[in-house]
Structures are given as structure tokens and as C-alpha cells.
Design brief:
33% of the residues lie in helices and 20% in strands. With 608 residues, the protein is an alpha/beta fold. Strands 5-6-9-12-8-7 form a six-stranded mixed beta sheet, covered by helices on one side. Strands 15-14-13-16-17-18 form a six-stranded mixed beta sheet, sandwiched between helices. A six-stranded mixed beta sheet has the order 21-20-19-22-23-24, with helices on both faces.
Length: 608
């Protein structure tokens, strides 16, 4: 398509050259004949009557020139003006759509108000909108203009930046690039699309109605997911099946209908080391996404799918990578055969991060290959939940087309995405704080810092995680309830402002008070009570703790200094070892934060 376009442009230029040359020569000869410097012989040739002009029509109709006239100069100027016409672009025209190595183009005036894909700074990936890049680089303004485009080889990486009101994006690599520069002068003529259409289409024939389906401008609003695809790029899949896999992914991209208000798609290749190919924010049009998939190259190496899942879960759903707050997170993992590494740890991280992992396995291991498979249950362990919904099997890469629609429907099924609710955005955490005299105000501040660090890990909101706090001595004081602060900043500020009470230690009564005043009954594994104490209670703790657990509250006990191990274990939920923590010094509390948070998320994932 590109080569034929380039050939037609070259042919058009040659035709214009010939027409102008014949026109100029005809004018000069006519002028010479009328003025008298030449005469017409019986053979049809022109002969000079004096030495002012030296023009002769040869045997082959060629014109030989010895001296330019003013009319000839005018014709050359007209020729240059014609041949230097700029090529009009739409706002969406990409560098990859231009066939010439260097070309002068014109950008319309309405591009600044559109959402255009621009990748890089100064030098742009060929997938970028030319006019978007021209706005970003400052070579044209909001009113449009003329710019010179020069094709360059591919590079990596392309750096993101914000300039002239345009945010360009990062891209790890691309096969070709382009650079822009200002055109020194305005064109003498701009060939408009309307003019081109008028000269190429018969006047009486109407344009045929396009058979291409209309693309939703904002994407599929019924599938507003952030979707990361992890594809197999190992030696095991090989180049041929890798290309078939690309075709399948391209069809999925078309069916998903990506867009600003629809699904966003990123992609990682699984090999020895995972490689990010593009981020969630890189493409807002299906056509651009399909083009990017087509450009992917096979890496080879081992099928380290676990590493790729871990990498995608940690890196691609962040806001810096284009992750959108409040949008369901989905990961589609494609694997040919079986993985080379373990998937357990990566899959757990994904689940705890609220990512709905789907695994599409192609070509199951043959009976004689089972001995090489490290974990025969990898398809069950990798997914969000082993309920049949998140596992998808395709018998062969040669029969993927029929699976595009049903798999797309699963990815976009909001009701089926069970892992969207996570411990980080679903739990109710109560802090039961020892304010007895043995703690002291400086150490009490260290306890509050410990609780702030735990609360910071959770997505606190009116529809997310909730936090409440009770301080106790012989008496109990509700510092704030679960619904009192609906933002993380509000909760953290409230924790830091808690005043130290000082008094005795009645932990058992405090547990009963917290269970009654902090929590309401919710789904299983949602309510957690963390007790922090530095000494022995004057009352029984086992009975109240058991009653709280029967109420659906999971209890963690954190002891400091002189807190008796037996009391800590009596308060903690089973298994006792994973719900009981102890540090000799108050300064050691900071080291327990991650372990407590991991425990909460583990309990949540087991019961949900």
C-alpha cells in the first residue's frame, strides 16, 4: 500500500515535469515565431532567422536549448511552485503512514483539542501522530501549519515529556522514528483533500459507502477495564506459533475496542526476563494497538511466566504506567504448553493487588511430556479463582479465531471479576491501643507511628477499607469509629492526634468494648482487630477474644516489652503463630508492619 502510494506520487511528479516543460517550450517557440527570430520550414522544423534564439525541434521531437528566455524562467518558477506543494494530513496520520524519507506536510488547525498518541521527545516513534508530535515539539501552533518530516531508524527508549500543552508518552522501543523541523516558508499551493478528490473521481459517480464498521470514538464503555496481556515469547512456542499468537492478540484488541472511555491494554512478553512492550496509557485506538502488536518480535528463552506475572502486577497497573483509579484490573496470560518457573508467589501477589488473572493455555502437555512439567496444577494456581471462569483452554494456535469473542466477553464481565475486591480496599481494621502508665508518652507516640504505617498500606475510602481506634486502660475510649473518616489522610491525621490516657491495663474488657462499638457484621474475613499492649492484663483476655472471633473478627496480638506470651496467644486467632507478634523494644514495632499487613491479606484471600 505504501509503496504503491509512493510510486503514484513519483509518477505524478514526472508527469508534471513533462507537462510544464512542453508548455514552456511551446510558449517560447510560439513567441519566437510571432516575433520573427525563427521561421517554419516545409518539414515542420523551426529555423533561426538571427542569433537571438537557438531553438531547434530535432528528429525525435526533442527540444535543445542554448539560452533561457524570461518566459522559460517563469515556467521553471511555476514548476518549482507546483512540485513543492505540501501534503495535507489529518490529526491522526502517523509517521508510519508516510512513505517518503523526507516530506513537507501540513497539519490542520483542530488537532490541539484532540487526544492524540505521541511517543517520545524531539525524536518520535513512527506510531506517533505527526501533527500531535508537531504540536508537542512546537514546530506548529494550535492554528496548524507546515512542517518537514524526516524518517529515522528505530530506537529505545522513547522518553515521555509535557510540552506545549501535549503530554507525550514513554515507549520501550519501536522499529522506526521521525524528526520534525520547521519549513522555511509557506507553500505556494496546498493540495487539499477536496481538490484531490475532485481531480480523481468522476463527477457523476458518488463515493461508495464504506463497509468498515464504525469504531466507537471513546471505546467500548461496557468494558472499562485496565487489561495487561502477558504473551509467550519463549523458545517453546517458536517463531511460527508466536506469529499465530500475535494474530490472536490482534483480533482480541479489535474485539475489545480500546478507547479513552473503554478498555486500556498493556503488554508484556514472557521470556528469560520479562519485557514491557507498551503501557496501559500508550494506545487509545484499536488500530494503533493492532499495529503495535504486529511489530512485536520473538525473544526466545525460557517460559518464565511467573516472573512475567510478577513484573506485570508490580509495574503495569500503577498510575505512572497508565493505571486508572477505580477501574477493574485484568491480566490475560497466554502460555504455550507449560511454564518454566513457579507461578504461586506471583499469582498470590496479583490476587492481593486486586488483579483478576485469566490463564489461556494452548496445546496442553502430551502424556509423554508430563514428566517435564514442574507443577501439574499450574493452571489452577495462576488464576484469580479456580472456579472454571478464569481458566480458558485453546486446543491449537490454528483454531483461535472462534475463541476471540467468548474470551473477550469473559474479560469484560464485571460481575465475574471476583478479585477486584482485595484486602487493601475491602477490610475493616480496628486498632486497640494500650494507654496504660507503663507505656509512657514517648513510647505511645511510637505505637501511633506503627499504626499509621499499617493504615497507610490500605485504600481507605467510603467504599473501600475502613479504620477505627479504641484506647484503653481500666477504661475504654472510642477515639474514632469506622465510618468517621472516609479518606486515608483523615484517618492518618486522627491517629496522630490521639492523646495519651495513662492508667491501668484491662485488656479483656477492652476487647469486648471494641467488638461491640467498632464492628458491624460483614462478609467473611473482612473484620480485623489489632491489639497492641506492653504488659499483663488485670482481667481475663481469652474469653472476650474467643467471643470476638465467633463474631467474625480476626484478631492479631502485638506485644512489646513485658507483654506475657501466653496472653498474646490467648488473644490471637488461629493459627496462633501467624497471628502473634512480639518485639522487645518499642522501636522494633516498625519492623513488624509488613508482616502484619501480609497476614491480613492472607486471611482475606483465604476467606474470599
Amino acid at each position: 500500500m505504501k509503496s504503491s502510494c509512493f510510486s503514484s506520487q513519483l509518477l505524478s511528479l514526472k508527469l508534471r515535469l513533462h507537462i510544464v516543460c512542453v508548455f514552456v517550450c511551446a510558449c517560447v517557440c510560439a513567441c519566437a515565431y510571432l516575433k520573427g527570430p525563427v521561421s517554419l520550414s516545409s518539414s515542420g522544423r523551426l529555423h533561426p532567422r538571427n542569433k537571438i534564439y537557438f531553438w531547434t525541434f530535432g528528429q525525435n521531437g526533442q527540444v535543445e536549448c542554448a539560452e533561457m528566455s524570461l518566459l522559460l524562467l517563469t515556467g521553471v518558477y511555476f514548476l518549482l511552485s507546483w512540485s513543492s506543494a505540501t501534503h495535507p494530513l489529518t490529526c491522526e496520520t502517523r509517521g508510519a503512514d508516510l512513505a517518503q524519507e523526507t516530506v513537507v506536510v501540513s497539519c490542520p488547525a483542530d488537532c490541539s483539542g484532540r487526544r492524540l498518541s505521541v511517543f517520545g521527545t524531539d525524536i518520535y516513534a513512527a506510531i506517533s501522530s505527526v501533527c500531535g508530535a508537531a504540536l508537542h515539539s512546537g514546530t506548529v501552533g494550535v492554528s496548524g501549519g507546515v512542517v518537514k518530516v524526516e524518517r529515522l531508524p528505530g530506537r529505545h527508549p522513547y522518553i515521555r515529556s509535557f510540552a506545549n500543552g501535549i503530554q507525550s508518552q514513554a515507549l520501550s522501543r519501536w522499529s522506526s522514528s521521525f524528526r520534525l523541523s520547521e519549513h522555511p516558508e509557506q507553500p505556494h499551493q496546498i493540495i487539499s483533500d477536496a481538490t484531490a478528490a475532485a481531480t480523481t473521481l468522476p463527477a457523476k459517480k458518488a463515493l461508495k459507502k464504506s463497509s468498515v464498521k464504525k469504531v466507537l470514538p471513546g471505546g467500548n464503555k461496557d468494558c472499562q477495564m485496565d487489561i495487561v496481556m502477558v504473551i509467550d515469547s519463549s523458545d517453546n512456542i517458536g517463531r511460527r506459533r508466536f506469529n499465530l499468537q500475535k494474530n490472536f492478540v490482534s483480533k482480541l484488541a479489535a474485539m475489545l475496542k480500546v478507547g479513552t472511555s473503554g478498555p486500556h491494554v498493556g503488554l508484556v512478553q514472557a521470556s528469560d526476563v520479562p519485557r514491557t512492550e507498551f503501557l496501559l496509557s500508550n494506545f487509545t485506538h484499536s488500530k494503533d494497538l493492532q499495529f503495535a502488536v504486529k511489530e512485536l518480535t520473538h525473544l526466545g528463552g525460557h517460559t518464565n511466566t511467573g516472573k512475567a506475572i510478577m513484573h506485570a502486577a508490580q509495574m503495569l497497573f500503577t498510575q505512572e504506567s497508565g493505571g486508572r483509579r477505580g477501574h477493574p484490573r485484568v491480566m490475560l496470560v497466554l502460555i504455550d504448553g507449560w511454564p518454566s518457573d513457579d507461578l504461586d508467589r506471583a499469582a498470590m501477589l496479583a490476587r492481593e493487588s486486586g488483579i483478576n488473572v485469566f490463564l489461556a493455555s494452548v496445546a496442553k502437555p502430551a502424556p509423554d511430556e508430563l514428566a517435564m512439567v514442574r507443577d501439574h496444577d499450574f493452571t489452577k494456581k495462576a488464576v484469580c479463582k479456580d472456579n472454571g471462569f478464569f481458566n480458558y483452554h485453546i486446543s491449537s494456535w490454528f483454531s483461535t479465531t472462534k475463541h476471540v469473542k467468548p474470551l473477550t466477553q469473559r474479560l469484560c464481565s464485571l460481575d465475574g471479576l471476583l478479585c477486584s475486591r482485595t484486602c487493601f480496599n475491602s477490610v475493616n481494621i480496628g486498632f486497640l491501643i494500650d494507654g496504660s502508665s507503663s507505656v509512657g508518652d514517648p513510647n505511645f507516640r511510637l505505637v501511633l507511628d506503627f499504626l499509621v504505617a499499617i493504615a497507610t498500606k490500605f485504600d481507605i475510602s467510603d467504599v473501600g477499607a475502613h479504620v477505627g481506634a479504641v484506647q484503653f486502660t481500666y477504661d475504654q475510649r472510642l477515639e474514632f469509629g469506622m465510618s468517621e473518616h472516609t479518606t486515608k489522610d483523615g484517618v492518618l491525621s486522627a491517629l496522630r492526634r490521639i492523646p495519651y490516657m495513662s492508667g491501668g491495663t484491662a485488656t479483656g474488657s477492652a476487647i469486648s468494648y471494641a467488638a461491640q462499638n467498632l464492628f458491624r457484621r460483614t462478609g467473611p474475613g473482612r473484620n480485623f482487630l489489632i491489639v497492641v499492649t506492653d504488659g499483663q492484663s488485670y482481667d481475663n483476655v481469652g474469653g472476650p477474644a474467643l467471643a470476638a472471633q465467633n463474631q467474625g473478627i480476626t484478631m492479631y496480638s502485638v506485644g512489646v516489652a513485658w507483654a506475657p506470651p501466653d496472653d498474646l496467644k490467648s488473644m490471637a486467632s488461629a493459627p496462633k503463630e501467624s497471628h502473634t507478634f512480639f518485639t522487645r523494644e518499642f522501636t522494633g514495632l516498625a519492623e513488624l508492619v509488613d508482616a502484619v499487613v501480609r497476614g491480613i491479606c492472607h486471611d482475606f484471600s483465604i476467606k474470599n
